């Protein structure tokens, strides 16, 4: 049986992404997949020399048969840097390069050349400063590139007594804009995508989803905000009538406790920093970021570019291994 092919974008060239890709090639055991990196071969070779790692690069064309995974060898689909990159030193001139690596990975998944994509971290600021002012992150870029409306960002870890999965109703927005972004139509779409993907990609027959309120104490019956009464609760009631197992809206400060989480398959938080700090406290370095609703499998690491660790060899590869394992598992269920 052929191994699934996972395409790994190497992310911000000045960050830890290139060496994370190299670290995978140093030990293929337990991956049960073929990983092909997308990036500049000269960058990867230079980073390997800097670290003193013996990794040989197999530069291949997109669509060419990939070599059998072998310790110390890394297949690469080449994309050239705009300017040479130094560890820890951002250069906005390479913004287009980072986006091109994503485009190559997307095309490979669309063609069926790859079964899933996994992304190393990029630097939003460098991409914005490099001439892409509307860029807000991987999730939104992939949504637009794939031409879909309802994607959902979810992080997951198994470093807890039961797998903890936290999805977001909104993603990379300033806090001042969150309330207006939570609409009935948008929330309905997010919950449907989340429930469908938990069923199809994670094998959960009837997922139970805990839904956070937006306001303290879930609005305190309208005394601390009316979004729960006017938007969130009506959506949950309608979707329960369709057969979805939804609990809430619950106060976020008590939802993340064992008596609730032990009975749940996922949590839906209303905004980025409502749910993700809890998950990262529980499993940072051993969690995966997952984009649901793309029509293909995409996972990523749970951390940023770690510029201060770039080129030191000290970057923790744990989250990348989790992201690769989750991508492989999701791909297997999709088939």
UniProtKB/TrEMBL annotation:
Protein name: 4-hydroxythreonine-4-phosphate dehydrogenase
Top-level taxon of origin: Bacteria
The family this protein is said to belong to: Belongs to the PdxA family.
Organism expressing this protein natively: Salinicola corii
Catalytic activity, as annotated: 4-(phosphooxy)-L-threonine + NAD(+) = 3-amino-2-oxopropyl phosphate + CO2 + NADH
Principal EC category: oxidoreductase
Regions annotated as coiled coil: none
Chief site of localization: cytoplasm
Keyword ATP-binding (UniProt): no
Gene name as annotated: pdxA
Pfam family, one: PdxA
EC number of the protein: 1.1.1.262
Anything else known: The active site is located at the dimer interface.
GO biological process, one term: pyridoxine biosynthetic process
